[in-house]
Specification:
- By secondary structure, the chain is of the alpha/beta class.
- The protein is 33% helix and 29% strand.
- The strands form two sheets. Strands 9-8-10-11-7-12-13 form a seven-stranded mixed sheet, with helices on both faces. A six-stranded antiparallel sheet has the order 3-2-1-6-5-4, covered by helices on one side.
- Keywords: ATP-binding, Nucleotide-binding.
- Belongs to the GSP E family.
- This is Competence type IV pilus ATPase ComGA.
- InterPro entries: ATPase_ComGA, P-loop_NTPase, T2SS/T4SS_dom.
Length: 324
């Protein structure tokens, strides 16, 4: 079984796949790879072979091998030329078996050029405030945050501490804390501790609820530059979510330096390109003072996608996929 698993994983890595899907049917199990946001069929397995392969995956990821009736998730380190985190997630199905998805992530973050994001990286020079990255799952929020953090370390020589659930990729020279609820290593407890450790930049993995939102705002107002992610479809949606969580207009104005809403799109030449809209503090002030209306000069994500279509960088189907 290990040989079969290695064959699947190594093919996925050679194809730069981000996920491997095992999708059971009554007759067999389909194996598909997510490559540049597209699911492509790789192979099929018979049900007995898949069950043995799934048992091996569960064992290596530290999951309960005997349980088939609840969703589980775990991860382990896999070595093939480089080191990778494999996150194994299972879901029980009414077919009497389980589906499985393996998320593949390099253990060490591979930094790339920041030329296309110079307008964001220059804000890392701020001594305090909040920078929020938004967008759906798979939009590249964590990747862009990591790029900003490495820029702050390498170019600005700043002290950076992160709190993540879990740590997605390792950043050399950056202090990274992984949330562990059982050990009482929570976002809240960790944030209070690291504020005493003289950080210049704090990265909070995700704003999930009102409590974390309030603590992130307070940290950004206390002389620290804070980066975090939040799920929203656009920049104004980020503000509306925070207001719904109980954050006051004044705190939003005092704390927020920048909101980024982004997508990773596939171009006509099959490359991945980051597209984003940005809302600066002046835009936020206008939005909150004018009944949640954007300034006429604001360039939306839809505007940028339309421009890329006119330039032939992306096609109409891609625009429809990412526009609201």
């Amino acid at each position: 079984m290990q040989f079969l698993l290695d064959t699947v994983l190594q093919h996925a890595l050679c194809k730069s796949a981000s996920d491997v899907h095992f999708i059971p049917t009554p007759e067999h199990v389909e194996v598909k790879l997510r490559i540049k946001d597209q699911l492509t069929r790789y192979d099929t397995l018979n049900l007995d072979t898949y069950q043995r392969l799934l048992t091996l995956l569960k064992f290596q990821a530290g999951l309960d091998v005997s349980s088939r009736h609840r969703a589980q998730s775990g991860r382990y380190i896999y070595h093939y030329k480089d080191l990778y985190y494999l996150r194994v997630s299972t879901l029980p199905l009414n077919l009497g078996t389980e589906s499985c998805v393996i998320r593949i992530t390099p253990q060490y973050f591979q930094n790339i050029s920041l030329k296309s994001t110079a307008d964001i990286s220059k804000l890392m020079e701020k001594k305090q405030g909040l920078i929020l990255f938004s967008g759906p799952t798979g939009a590249g929020k964590s990747t862009l945050m990591y790029q900003m953090v490495l820029y702050a370390k390498q170019e600005l020589n700043l002290n950076i501490i992160t709190i993540e659930d879990p740590v997605e990729q390792l950043l050399n020279g950056v202090t990274q804390i992984s949330v562990n609820e059982k050990a009482d290593i929570t976002y809240s407890a960790s944030l209070k501790a690291i504020l005493r450790c003289d950080p210049d930049v704090i990265l909070i993995g995700e704003i999930r609820d009102a409590k974390i939102a309030r603590e992130v705002i307070q940290a950004s107002l206390s002389g620290h530059l804070v980066l975090s992610t939040i799920h929203a479809n656009d920049c104004q949606g980020v503000l509306l979510r925070l207001i719904e969580m109980g954050i006051s207009y004044q705190d939003l104005l005092q704390s927020t330096n920048l909101i980024v809403n982004q997508r990773l799109v596939t171009t006509t030449n099959q490359q991945r390109q980051l597209v984003y809209e940005t809302m600066l503090n002046d835009d936020i002030q206008y939005f909150l003072s004018n009944d949640f209306q954007l300034p006429d000069t604001f360039t939306t994500l839809a505007d940028k996608l339309s421009l890329l279509k006119k330039e032939g960088v992306i096609d109409a189907a891609t625009v429809r996929k990412y526009e609201k």
